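Researcher: Following up on the earlier apo prediction. This time include the ligand. It's fe (ii) ion, with the SMILES given after the sequence.
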Amino acid sequence: MGSTPTLPQSGGRYRRPHPGTQPDYYYPPYVTSIKRAPTQPLVRLPHTLSEITGPLFQDLVRQHTAMPKACDLTRQPSGNAIGERIIVSGRVLDENSRPVANTLVEVWQANAAGRYYHDVDQHNAPLDPNFPGFGHTLTDSQGHYRFVTIRPGEYPWRNHYNAWRPAHIHFSLFGPACATRLVTQMYFPGDPLMAYDPMFNCVPDEKARARLISAFDWETTIPEQALGYRFDIILRGREATPMEGQ
Ligand SMILES: [Fe+2]
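Model: Understood. Below is the ligand-bound prediction.
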């Protein structure tokens, strides 16, 4: 610790989300939201120093440089994961399009068959002993991050009859402050299941929803190795990447 926190430029406060660009708390097609949604009007909290500073993770940054790389999910000590290798990369930017450097990016996902390595997941699909399905990395000085992983499979989730989640990768970021915390999901372009997915569609604004979809990327595609997908993440502001549905 000990570094000076980066404060937002907009008068020391983060801009509030633009209407419709974040998930509706109450979205009945997403059945879980019916019980989770607040029943009382929200209380607007002012941004104080607690919200606009930290976490800094400086110790983690130091440790990370000494740790084995956790940004390649396809190679485990026991062997290589099964599935289609992909590269997922992008930049993390703040509300003023400035890079967010040295920030922790965590991912978790289902394997190629659409199953998580987790006791709760009892989907009748094979587990891959060489794919735990989670990783983390830090952005560089220009906000870039990069993961090598497996394209996740779609999976059923019993929200309604014949409900299937589109292929997706979960992301968690803290950014420079508590107010920039983001937990979201990245989708793949052209996935027909997005149109039927309440968790994707609970973000009312179409342009905001589109910010959850990665773009196929020739620039990061490696010949004979892996297709590239680009997913830029914006923490707060008018163009903010939406949170996942609650
Ligand atoms: Fe998931």
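Model: Residues 165, 168, 170 surround fe (ii) ion (CB under 6 Å).
Researcher: Noted. I'll compare it with the apo version next.
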